[in-house]
Specification:
Blueprint: H1 2-10, H2 17-28, H3 32-45, H4 50-60, H5 63-107, H6 115-163, H7 175-192, E1 196-203, H8 206-213, H9 215-232, E2 238-243, E3 246-252, H10 256-271, E4 289-295, H11 302-318, E5 324-326
Parallel strand pairs: 4-5
Antiparallel strand pairs: 1-3, 1-4, 2-3
Pfam families: GGDEF
Cofactor: Mg(2+)
EC number: 2.7.7.65
Length: 333
């Protein structure tokens, strides 16, 4: 916390909640994408402005942006409903007026009416009939337009909801979606004793790969790992990008032994890939990952589970990388 505030003072950044969130995430090192973006700006300009901090917050912390989108959709829907009500109301007024005019015409239809008067009445009836038909057509057309506009708003809302839960680089679930699913599944496991296993995957020597080949190549490798997991785990609960070069897989109704087998199969499949740079066709060498595996123990909570599986990844790295390590059991008091 102190380091974040110190860095903000150094760059003359206002200590707003949004700015603090950006700088705290930067100094904590939990978000590699945010760190790269900030390092690029600092390397180019030597400092970070309030506006640049705001842009980084909007890019990497999407909850407020999603809330703003929802408010905008609600506002547009409200305006649309007001327009439709005005059209219907005007149609009702038009209909009432035509009804009155036709009643007046009917009263003038007397036995001694002249040919000219009858002709005039027929013309008036025709005019009012056309007005009624025109008003009805206008209402029908406006309602058809309204239906299309509501459908567009529905699609926009669905897109907003989907994007709020997706990592844009890999197409996997993002950290927000992971947190929501992990909370739901741990509560379910506490309630009914369901088996729940978590895999944490961390790419080996990813920073060295980025430094040697650049971020676009690093992104290519991240997408490969994500695609490999998606193809191998179809039907599983959730695959998420945890941050930077880390991925999390939630497996419900899965024993610890089966979870370890899944992790080992993924580790071997990724290590067997032979990737080349798209621009030069230069081989990237062996791409490896380390896995931590943990089984949820009822009552321990999601934080304890993630700490244990993170510790297991650390042990896998310590054992030489490109390996799978089981997390120690939780300590519950």
């Amino acid at each position: 916390m102190r380091l974040a505030i110190s860095m903000m003072k150094k760059h003359s950044i206002a200590t707003t909640p949004a700015n603090y969130a950006v700088w705290f995430e930067y100094v904590s090192g939990n978000n590699a994408d945010l760190m790269r973006a900030m390092d690029d700006v600092l390397a180019q300009h030597g400092s970070l402005t309030d506006q640049q901090s705001k842009q980084l917050y909007e890019q990497f912390f999407d909850r407020e942006k999603d809330r703003s989108t929802l408010l905008q959709i609600r506002k547009e829907l409200g305006n649309l409903l007001k327009q439709v009500l005005n059209v219907v109301y005007s149609g009702v007024n038009s209909s009432d007026n035509s009804h009155y005019q036709l009643q007046q015409t009917l009263q003038r239809l007397q036995p001694d009416i002249s040919r000219q008067q009858l002709n005039d009445l027929i013309q008036e009836v025709l005019i009012e009939t056309r007005l009624i038909a025109s008003a009805g057509e206008a209402i029908s057309n406006r309602l058809n337009v309204a239906v299309n506009e509501v459908e567009d708003l529905k699609k926009l809302l669905e897109t907003s909801r989907r994007e709020a839960n997706i990592d844009m680089l890999t197409g996997l679930a993002n950290r927000k979606a992971l947190d929501d699913s992990l909370t739901r599944l741990t509560q379910q496991a506490d309630h009914n004793g369901m088996d729940l296993a978590v895999l944490l995957c961390d790419m080996d020597s990813f920073n060295a790969l980025n430094e040697k080949h650049g971020q676009p190549v690093g992104d290519q490798v991240l997408r490969m790992v994500a695609e490999t997991m998606q193809n191998s785990l179809k039907g599983r609960d959730l695959i998420a990008r945890y941050g930077g070069e880390e991925f999390v897989i939630l497996l419900s109704d899965t024993t610890l032994a089966n979870a370890k087998m899944i992790a080992e199969n993924l580790r071997a499949e990724i290590a067997g890939k032979h990737l080349r740079r798209k621009d030069t066709q230069e081989p990237l060498g062996m791409i490896t990952v380390s896995f931590g595996v943990a089984r949820y123990t009822a009552g321990e909570g999601s934080d304890s589970l993630m700490q244990r599986v993170d510790r297991a990844v650390f042990m896998a790295k310590k054992n030489g990388r490109n390996s799978v390590c089981e997390a120690p059991p939780p300590v519950i008091f």
